[in-house]
Structure prediction request, 220 residues.
Amino acid sequence: MDQHFHPLDYFANVDKYHLHLPHWRQRDVTYFVTWRLADSLPKSRLDQLRAEQEAWLRTHQIRSKDEVKTLPEHLRWEYQQMFTARVHEWLDSGMGSCALREPGCSAIVVDALRYFDGERYALDAFVVMPNHVHVLVRPLTGWKLEKVLHSWKSFTAKTINQATGKQGVLWLEESWDHIVRSLAQLEHFRLYIRENPVKARLSQGEFVLGCGGGLKTDAV
Prediction:
């Protein structure tokens, strides 16, 4: 298995689509992915975020969010980072049920992340926070990121609900993802993952920090 880090290829085709968030897809690249519990952000905060997004759009004379994807890359990046960073800040404040704070629940997520490492994907650094998960991962040939994420989220939702005796939706359906652009950005995301529990002022036992087989960077 190729364990090497593969960044975005600026000269290859990129498939782009947009749900609530923009998504870029390219074969054989590394992604930084975040997904969160369905109850991790209350409606009041989401309304606040939408108001700030609308203000940004007005400032840049953009009529709708759909037009953001037609902007120059630096403005798309600004838009995505500005509002993604805000969401991460709110997540780190510990909103919602924070079901993953329980060691039994976080262990289910860790086991799922590691299960097909080296078979379906190359897993690098990850952290399981009380209400969200950050992962660096490169899907292997024949596996798209959507399939990998669906497998993780579907299995863990069912298993955690069984373990806790609860029902209903566990994860927010859509995840945030970003194709890693360079080795420097890979190291940035690795550092972000390592420091996330510290920034959120979590104690040991409230999070799980780990790594899969890892991505080699010697040939990059």
